[in-house]
Write a structure and sequence with these properties.
About 60% of the residues lie in helices and about 10% in strands. The chain is an alpha+beta fold. It has a four-stranded antiparallel β-sheet with strand order 1-2-3-4, with helices on one face. The longest helix has about 35 residues, at about 5-35. The protein starts with a helix and ends in a 7-residue tail after the last helix.
Length: about 230
């Protein structure tokens, strides 16, 4: 992977961050507007409120129990919905649904990748001949100093998993949301630098294999870091 590939990786991470930010903003906007349109709201006023949205779109339709206004957003790929039920040209109920949460998906991807990378580092620490995938790829089997470093890195990556799971609300071990928030931002930065370092490695194997893995980790951690609040699921 040359400099163009490294630049492309960096641009891809930034694009992913922008798309994730837009996703979260669209979810927040839809959730707030849906909550604001309570029972008894006249339909003309409800549509005026919806017109203030920057990320959503809506359409009137015939539901199973009468007319409804369906609110969605292209920024969430249609995964978030707000349904306004109507009777006598007034809103009688509003229901917000977001069955797919982006931070959960990104967190699962990041944790799965971290398990793989931590496993690789543990194998390297035990003397496995996979040195071409790490630490610049200068040696097939790592020397003692780098084997110790790989063992320490394997442990650090497990801490990273805990931070990610804590941030998305899947685990309550740390008990400090601010620490998890800062920790995931640190992970996003570290993996972004790692992706750039892997792309500049003298080992072609490290470039081809580890660059996309660390770039995916950077992007996934960034999504989790950008998520508004941990939501227990």
């Amino acid at each position: 992977m040359n400099r163009f590939g490294a630049a492309l990786t960096f641009v891809a991470v930034l694009a992913y961050a922008w798309a994730s930010f837009s996703w979260f903003e669209a979810e927040k906007e839809m959730r707030l507007l849906c909550a604001a349109l309570g029972s008894g709201e006249p339909v003309p006023r409800a549509t005026k409120v919806l017109d203030t949205g920057h990320y959503l779109r809506y359409a009137r339709a015939d539901g199973d129990s009468g007319p409804v206004i369906e609110v969605t957003s292209a920024y969430t790929l249609g995964s978030a919905h707000c349904t306004l039920r109507i009777a006598d040209e007034r809103v009688v109920s509003s229901v917000y649904r977001a069955p797919v949460r982006l931070e959960w998906v990104a967190g699962a991807v990041a944790v799965a990748l971290l398990v793989g990378v931590a496993g690789l580092q543990l194998l390297l620490a035990l003397g496995a001949p996979f040195g071409k995938l790490a630490w610049g790829g200068a040696r097939t089997t790592l020397p003692p100093r780098l084997r110790v470093a790989s063992g320490a890195l394997a442990l650090a990556l497990q801490v990273g998993m805990v931070l990610l799971l804590e941030r998305v609300g899947a685990l309550q071990m740390i008990g400090d949301p601010d620490l998890a928030y800062i920790g995931v931002w640190v992970l996003a930065g570290v993996f972004t630098l790692s992706a750039l370092a892997n792309a500049a490695s003298s080992s072609s194997l490290e470039k081809r294999v580890m660059t996309p893995i660390t770039a995916a980790l950077a992007a996934s951690c960034l999504v989790v870091a950008l998520s508004p609040v941990p939501i227990a699921g």
